[in-house]
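Example record for the data management plan.
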Amino acid sequence: MELSGVEITRIVAELNKALSGYYVNNISPIDEATWLIRLHHPSSPEKRLVISITKGVWLTAYELPTKAPDTFVSQLRDYLVRGRFINAEQPDVERIVKIKFLVNGSERTLIAEFFGGGNLLVVDEEERILTLLKKIEVRHRTLAQGQTYTPPPPRGRSPFAEQGDLLNDFNTSGLEIARYLGRELALSRKYVEEALFRAGIDPKARTLTEEQKAKIVGEIAGLKDLILHSGKPTILLRDGKPVDASPFELTSYGKGECKYTESFIEAVDEVQTPALLEELKKRKEEPLQKKIEELNKALEAQAKRRLELKEQATKLRELAATLTKLSAEESPEELPKLLKTLNIEYKESRGEYLEIKGFEEPIQLPIRATPISAASTFFNAAKKVEAKVRAIEEAERNLSEKKAQLLAEKAVESEPKPLKRIRVKRWFERYRWFYTSKGLLAVGGRDAASNTAILRRHTQDNDLVFHADIHGSPFFVLKGGAEADEESIKECCKAVASYSSAWKAEISALDVYWVKPDQIRFTGPSGTYLPKGAFLIEGEKNWVKNVKLEAGIGVCKLDEDLVVIGGPPDALKVHSLFYVVLTPEKGKVSDVAKRVKAELMKLAGKELGARIKEIPLDDFIRALPTGGGRIISTQRGEQKA
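Corresponding structural encoding:
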């Protein structure tokens, strides 16, 4: 499927709705013509934008493999990362998308072209090219770094424009109507044929009545509403696999199995992403296939040479046996005559030696050698050739083993891998979080910015806010905490203590307090200044003294997925499948995370352990307190698998 201009128009409209308020988080290459842009939102799930200059642009719900960044991607990151999405645009209905971002107060535009091999560029506010994938110099435009971006000439009139005079010259053009419309309009073949089918016109017609012309113009005008507004995005399936997508159901789809989606971008994702993954898989298999073909050629050559040498060895032994037999006669002929009798070619050398022709091994016999002496020489030559045969057979075995190994690798690579959807994380998963043993959600900050985000965006009147009087203490919010039991309050206090800087300092206990949301002030009294991330607490603080530092790290089921959870051990006992308990101890966090993951895998058994193995190590690192820790116990939680 190759996205047409009108389909890109629909995608651009959907991108503007989907990406409002999002920021570029990272850019990674998928292959030399495809990139994945991760976009972050303060309170909504991450979105992933795929830009393929050979396939188009869409948001994906699936996991895609990425490669290490090259120089071009590094430049894309320099210009666009942390940029806020402004809007997406399309010049007329050309196969071009412009995506504008606000980066450090300056506007940057990412331009993707989906024609002529495609191109990707970044331009500034004056449309001066900052970086580009391919330099272009053709008759109508030049694209190079530092030059002003020039779009290509229009391919045809927009199908969304007024078409009153569209067919004025058709009857004298000598063209079929389908070809005429394809030449005049920036409209792909499938939509040209759709308009003609709806108008009841034969695509091969070369003349039309005025009434037929009016019908065609009317149907083309109707496509705009179907493509942009009223159409139901549709996927065409063949043998159960998505093969095409349209913003509305085409009449040609009526003969096949169809599937409907909420948005056209979703339909494109269902078609283009599997196709992209299949291409990546084939490309990955190509080097293996090339090596296998090379091994096959080598094996054929070795087999041919082995047979040739075996024939020579057999002939040499036969000659040796014949000469031995002749030597037993009372008056054998002289050696040159014997060799001629046996049809053996030779060449005299300096009147002293006979150089035997036609064998792998160089064989030289004295002219006056006896038949028995010559037989011995031929026999020794046969043994040398047979040694070469054995060496070739050993080489063949090695090549066959290599081939078997490559075929096994190819079989693994060729196994169909199901598309893996990206799990849509809940809002609180970007912070520290856990459910108390009584089922209340507690959410904590990781740094000053996330502390502020939690208090400003996610705190309501019936919550409780927890903090400790130590530099480097997180804020935790206990949702619905106004009605919380004492146990939930103690668990939230333990989380604040354990995720504070007291853990890294190996302090065993800490005093923690809680307040109501209306006691928190984000600005100081008139004339005073509060540093970023600082707050004022008014009124009485409710202290919980000598809170023991102790953290649990476990795995729980959330939305049918296995996720890593960190919090007080008593809470994890209720809301996890398996968990470990840690106390403060200095160490490398990544090493502790590896030990935690290994212990949980061991505790989980083969099936669940395999699923835990797939969880990235970073998820365990993010759940740990800062500064390592020592595992003091491993436990099974009460949550059911």
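Summary line stored alongside the record: The chain is about 40% helix and 25% strand.
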